[in-house]
Amino acid sequence: MAETVAVIDYGSGNLRSAAKALERAATDAGLNTHVVVTSDADIVSNADRLVLPGVGAFAACMDGLMAVEGLKDAITHSAIGEGRPFLGICVGMQLMAEWGVEFGRHQGLGWLKGEIAPLAPTDAALKIPHMGWNEITTTNPHPVLAGVAGASVYFVHSYALTGAAPAEVIATADYGGAFPAVVGRDNIAGTQFHPEKSQAAGLKLLANFLTWRP
């Protein structure tokens, strides 16, 4: 029986590229997986796996999520209530934190400890946003990083998670200082980078997510 993976549509952009990468990862891994891009709360509530992409400002993405009737409750029901595997990507990962401080202080989903704050590289020559390929270093081994640890992946961001619980930081990257690149606990995980833009390493991570049994 095919599993359904809901790529959550809340007006955040990059949905189709994430969906296509998930479809490719499923095909390459020989999985019977149905990927659907949706804002339907009922579909999200009943999906086997959830993916929350995100591009843009924390507050705008959170407002977009809250604006779709029943969607936040459906995500919470499925991921937190039912314990189904959840993957946040870029701002989708940032929304898992307690707070974001871009354009004011805004409440996140509160699933992970910490807040989303501006990157502050120690090297003034490093430009913001952080854009390009960087190596990730595993800090807490995790099934989603099997075969991915030490790979270079693609980042585009100006903010990162700070004040994280050490146990919830799965991997870091360095850009004038270390920051969380992969985070998670229990059945939820998030990547600050874009696996859908990270070529073979990104497809491997997505395949790992599609076979992850928390």
Q: Could you characterize the architecture of this molecule?
A:
The chain has 214 residues and is of the alpha/beta class. It has one domain (3-211): Class I glutamine amidotransferase (GATase) domain (Rossmann fold, 3-Layer(aba) Sandwich), CATH 3.40.50. Helix content is 27%, strand content 30%. The protein is built from six helices and 14 strands. It has helices spanning 15-28, 41-46, 58-67, 71-81, 91-94, 199-211; strands spanning 3-8, 33-38, 49-52, 86-89, 99-100, 106-107, 115-118, 130-135, 137-138, 152-157, 159-162, 169-174, 178-185, 188-191. The chain starts with a strand and ends with a helix.
Layout of helices and strands:
Blueprint: E1 3-8, H1 15-28, E2 33-38, H2 41-46, E3 49-52, H3 58-67, H4 71-81, E4 86-89, H5 91-94, E5 99-100, E6 106-107, E7 115-118, E8 130-135, E9 137-138, E10 152-157, E11 159-162, E12 169-174, E13 178-185, E14 188-191, H6 199-211
Parallel strand pairs: 1-2, 1-3, 3-4, 4-14, 5-7
Antiparallel strand pairs: 5-6, 7-11, 8-10, 9-12, 12-13, 13-14
Helix pairs in contact: 1-6
Regions with pLDDT < 50 over 5+ consecutive residues? none
User: How many individual domains?
Assistant: 1
Span of the ends, CA to CA: 19 Å
Largest sheet geometry: 8 strands, mixed
CATH C-level name: Alpha Beta
Strand order of the largest sheet: 2-1-3-4-14-13-12-9
Order of helices and strands: EHEHEHHEHEEEEEEEEEEH
Q: How many H/I helices?
A: 6
Helix content: 25-40%
Q: What tags apply to this protein structure?
A:
Rossmann fold; 214 residues; alpha/beta; 8-stranded mixed beta sheet; 6 helices
